[in-house]
């Protein structure tokens, strides 16, 4: 009789794609992937984004330090900056825009038209 031991192979874990991973948009649509980051709560804060067309060509980039903020403010400010850049650029007028962000709170605030947004953001002028 053979004495066999079980051998388990430890395969590397497959990571889920990042919510901010770029996925091509429909023809003529533009996609802005944006993010905010803080070091501490609150702490030094940065925002960034990349705008690509449906073929993956980079149309616009931004990366900014925005002072001492909390993480929710960072995320909503990244969305706000993408909207402002899109609205101020006549060369991309006529395109649909998709803005992707990994914060469900910030996306909820950005999509909410009924007024239940953060008081701090209303005071800071992002509304």
TrEMBL record:
InterPro entries: RNase_H-like_dom_plant, RNaseH-like_sf, RNaseH_domain, RNaseH_sf. This is RNase H type-1 domain-containing protein. Coiled coil: none annotated. The lineage of its organism: Eukaryota, Viridiplantae, Streptophyta, Embryophyta, Tracheophyta. It holds the Pfam family RVT_3. GO terms for molecular function: nucleic acid binding; RNA-DNA hybrid ribonuclease activity. Residues 33-123 form the RNase H type-1 domain.
């Amino acid at each position: 009789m053979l004495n066999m031991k079980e051998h388990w192979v430890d395969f590397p874990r497959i990571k889920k794609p990042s919510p901010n991973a770029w996925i091509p948009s429909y023809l003529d649509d533009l996609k802005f992937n944006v993010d905010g980051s803080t070091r501490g709560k609150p702490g030094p804060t940065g925002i960034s984004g990349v705008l690509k067309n449906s073929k993956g060509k980079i149309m616009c980039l931004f990366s900014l330090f925005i002072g001492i903020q909390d993480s929710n403010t960072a995320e909503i400010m990244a969305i706000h900056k993408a909207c402002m850049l899109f609205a101020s650029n006549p060369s991309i007028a006529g395109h649909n825009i998709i803005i992707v962000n990994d914060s469900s709170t910030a996306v909820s605030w950005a999509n909410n038209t009924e007024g239940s947004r953060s008081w701090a953001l209303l005071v800071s002028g992002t509304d």
